Queue: 3 jobs
Job 1
Amino acid sequence: MRASSNGHEFIVKCYVDPRQSFYYLSRVHAGLLELQRRGRIRLRLTFSKPVDGLTDDPPWTPWLEVSNRRTGETRTAVIDLGDWSKVFALDALKNCDVYFKRNLFEPDLEHVPDTLRARVQPFGFNYACLARRQKRKILSRVVPGLLYVTLRSPNREYPSFKKRLLHLRQFLKSPPIESYEQSPHHSVDPIVFFHARVWPKPSYTDRDVEEETNRPRAELVRALKKEFKNRFLGGLAPNEHARRHYPDLISDYSGRRDEYIAAMRRALVAVASPHCVRTSSFKLAEYLAASRCIVCPPYPHRLPAPLIDGVNYLGFRTVDECIERCARLLEDRGMAEEMRLKNWQYYQTHVAPAQHMENLLSRVFEASASSQPGVRPPDSGIVQYFAGSQPERSRTSVGKESISVR
C-alpha cells in the first residue's frame, strides 16, 4: 500500500464499543495504531457504526469503515475474531461489504446464503499483543463508556459487567508486539516446547472435551516428556482441572505470559495441538513471530496466504508422527534453519500486526461481493451469534461520538 502525496492513502474509522473484548481485538487495534504512528493511515475511533439499526454484535467483531483517498471509494468491513468456524454474525454479514473471518473453514460456508458467500474472506491469524501507548488510548475511551452503559441500564448490563472487567484485565496483561519477535539468526536450544491447557467441558459445546481435547493433549505431553527427557520444555498449564486429572504432567512454569514467552523463545521446535471446536489457537501466530520450527496437525482453515506442510511446519496426525517430526527437526540442522527463515518471512509479510492490517485494508477494496449491503436474503441454516431474542441497543450520546487518534 502506497501512501498518497499528502501522507495517507486510507482513512479508517474503527467502531469501538465498551462491551467488546479488547483482549481478542488487541492485535487489530495494535496494527491500526502502528499504521497511524508510521503515518500510513489516518485513524479514528468511533462509537457509532457505519450502519444503523443493527442488533448487538458479538464482543469480538469490530467494524471498520475504510475510505480510499485516491479513488474516493468507501467500504465497510467486519472482522470476526470468534473461535467458532460455523458461527457468523449474520446481521453484520448482511450489512457489510466484506466480512473477514479468523476461523474460516470452507465446508461451513455451505450454510451461508449464496448472495452473501463472496463477502466472506479469510482474516488470518490472531493473538494478543499491544502497540505502544495502546492501553492508554483504549482505556481512556472504553472505561467511561463501560461505566455509562452499565449505570444507565444496570438490569441489562450488570450481569456481564464482571466478564467485561475480566476481558479488560486480560487486555491489560497482553504483552507488547516485540516480546514475541525473534529473528531466525538468534541462537536457540535444540529442545522441543509444548505448553497446553486442559479444562472442564464448557457450556457452549456438547462435544466431549475430555476425550477430544484434554486427553490427547495429555498423551502428547507424556510422550514428548518420555521421548525427549531433558530436551523437552513445557507441560500442562497449572490450573485446577490439570492438577486434579493430570498431576504428573503439570508444567514447570507458572502459566504467566512472560514465562511462557521466554520458554517458547528458547526452543528450536514448538508443537501445537488441535482444538475441539475447530478453532485456530493463538499459538501458531506466536510461533511464527518467534521464527520457531513448527510441528502441528494439518491446518484446516483458509488463510490469506497458506501455510505449507514441509515448508512452514511438519504436520502430524498421531503421537508417533509428532515424535518423529520433532526428532527430524532436531537432527536436521539445515531443514530447521530453512524453516525458521521461511516462518520469519511469513510473519513479516502476513502476521506482524501493522503489515497484516495494511494488507487487510487493501483487500477491503479487492474483495468482491455478490450483492449490495442492505439486501437481506432469507435466513438459512447458518448459526447466528446470540440466537433468540435480541436486547434492544440503547441509544446514548456516546453512540454518536467519534475521536481521532493522535
Job 2
Amino acid sequence: MRVVAVFLLCCSPLVAEAQAHSTVTLTLQDAILRARQQGPAAQAARSARDAARWRDEAFNARLLPQLRLQGDAANLNRAINPIDLPDGSTQYISQAHNTTSLGLGFSQALPLTGGTLTVGTQISRLDEFGTRSSRLYQTSPILVQLEQQLFRPRQIVWDKRVQHLDARVAEQAYLEAREDVARATADAFFALYAQDVALRNASNNVAVNDTLYTLNKGRFEVGKIGENDLLKSELALLRARSAVEDARVARARAEAALRRQIALPADAELTIVTPDSIPIVDADPTLAEKEALRNSSVVQQNELDDVQARYDVGLAKANSRFNATVSASAGFNPLGGGQPAHGAVGRRAGRRRGGEGGEPARDNDQQDPA
C-alpha cells in the first residue's frame, strides 16, 4: 500500500505537466463553436442580452399588482404651544405626542387610462404625553384611491412600446454578435493558416538560399564566379533568414489573435486543421436585402429611436400647456380610544368618542375597571 502511494505521488507531477502542455487540435467549426461558447466577445454579447431580458422581466413585473408596505415607527413632537383659553387669554402649554402609522395595500397601473389604482388598509396611533396622557387609534380597513393625470401622454403605454422594441433590439443584436464572432474567428483561423504557409515558404527559401550560397562559395574558390556574385548570394541568404524571423513574428501574432477569440489558455499548444473543401453559397441579393431590412438591429434601433422621439415631443407639448392630476379616495375611517392611563384621561377620551359617534360622553374608568 505504501509503495502504491509513493508511486502515485511520483507520477502526479508528470501527469500535471502532461496536462499543462496538452495540444489542442481545432478545425474551423470547432474554433467557431468554442469562440461562441467562451470567447470574450460572445460573453459580452450574452451578458448584454441577459441584461436586456432581466430589464424586460422587471418591466413586466411592474405591470402586475404591486404590494406596498409603508409606515412610521415613531414621529415624536414635543413643543410649547400657545393655547387660547375661553376667557380670551393665551396660555403657553407644553405638549408632547408621538404618531405611529402602518399601511398595507396593492397598487395597479391602468394602461387604458394611464392612472394608478390603489387598494389598501391603514392604521395609526397617537400617543399624548404629560398630565393629560391619552392614546388614540385611527384605522382605515378599506381605502381605495385613484390617481389620474389629465392632458398628458399615457406614460405606461409608451414605456411598454419602448421596452418591447428594446427587447427586440437586444435579441437581434445578440444574434448579429454571434455571427460577428464567427466571422472574426474564421478570419483569425485563416490568417493563422496563411502565416503557417508563409513561414514554411520562408523556411524553404532559407534552405534554398543556403544551398546556393554553399555552391557559390565552392565556385568562387575555383574561380568560376566573381566576388560580387558571391556577395549577392550571401545577401540573399541573409534576407531569407530575416524573412523567416518576420514570418515567425507574424505567425505568433496570428496565433495570439486566434487564442484571444476562442479564449484558449496560454500553456496549451494550438494546431489547426484546414477544411477539405469550401462550400459554395449562391446568395440572392434581393432576398438578402429584404431579410436585412426586416431583421437588422439597426433598423429596429431606428424604430425604437422614432418611438422615443415621438414620446419626448408629446411630453414636451404637454408640459407647455395646461395639465392636471386628479386624485380621488374613498374608504371607511373609524376612530377608537385605547385604555386610559387614569380617570381624567378616561373622561377626556370618552368625550372624544362620544362627540364623534353622536353618543353622550361616558367615563372610560366606568367602562373598563381594569
Job 3
Amino acid sequence: MKNKVTINVLTSPFSTPNSSAFIFPLKMNKLQLEESNIHINYFSKINSQITNADIIFIDSKFFRNKWDEKNINRTLSEFEYLKKNKSKLVYSDISDSSGVMHFKMLDHVDYYMKNQIFKNKNYYMDKLYGMRLYSHYFYENLNVKDQDPIWSLPLTSKVNLKKILLGWNSCFNNYGFFGNYQQFLQKKIQLDFLLFNPLRHRSDFDNRKKEVQIRFGSSNYRNSVGFFRKMVGKKLKRFSTNSNKINRISYFNELKNTKLILSPFGFGEINYKDFEVFITGGALMKPSMDHMITWPNLYTKETVVFHDWDFKDIDMKIEYFLDNSKILKVIAENGQENYFTFLNNKRLFVDYFLKIVQKII
C-alpha cells in the first residue's frame, strides 16, 4: 500500500476456534503486513479509540448473543457509533457455513465478509430450509424434516449482494495435537510468540494399517443439518466397526495410521477435522463442495475425494480408491502439500489480505 492503512479489529480474542482462526494469520504475518503499510490494532471492547481507523473489522463472535429483541437496538446503535469517524465497517462472519448469514446489520456496514460463500450469490435471496443449501437439498429431495424448522432470512435487495466479500477460512490456526493447548494459553495471556503453525506428520502411506476412518459426532444437530453424518455412519458400517469417541492421543494416532478419512458437513461445510487430516497426511473425503467458494481453496479434485450429496456413489468411490491406493496416496500428498503451502508461505496470505483492503478502501 502506498499510504498507511490503520485497521482496528473488534474481537473476543481466542475465545473460540473460529475467532482464533480469524486473527491467527493477522498476528502471524504482523511484520509482513506492517512492511506493506498495514497497521492492525486489536480491541476487546468498544471505546473512543477504536473509531480512529481507516477500516474496522468486527469479529461476528463479539456480537454473538446480542441480536435478540432485547439487545438489537443497542447493538445497531453501536454499529453506528463505530462509523462516527467515517471508518469503513466490515462485519466478519466467521461461522462455519456458506449459508448462515446475519443479515440484520447489512444496512449498517460497508462490507459483509464471510469465510466461505455461495458460488451463486443469488442463493442468498432464497429462503433455505435449515439455513443451509445442503439442509434445503435434503428437505426437498429426501423429505428430511426438523422438529422445529427454521428458514434463512432472504436478502431482498441485490444491492446488498455486492457487500458480500470473501474472507479467509478457518484453516489458519494450529489444529495439530498441541493446538488446543496453544489456544488455551493465548486466551489467558495473549503473547504472539506462543503462536506457531502445526507440525507436518510424514509417514509411509502404503504402510498405514487402517483403510477408512469414520469417526465423528452425529448428535446435537437438527435432522436436516446432521443428515450427512447420520447417513454416512449408516451406509458405511462395513468399513468401520467402531465410531465412538476416543481420547485425543488415540485419535491422532489413528489419523496417522489411516489412509482415507471421512469428514462430512456439520454446522458448516468446512470442519476442523479437514485440517487434522491434512496435518496427519491421510486422504480427505467430503461431500461435493461445488456450490461454494472459499480461500484458500484446499478443496479440489486433486486434493480431496468428493462424493455426491445423495450418497449413491460413496461406496463405489471408497472401494475404487482403496483398490487404487497409489492414486489415493497422490491425493493425500497433494492435500497436505497444498495445506502447508498456504500455512507457511506468508506472502500468499499477505497478498490476499492486501487485495481485500484495496477493495474496501
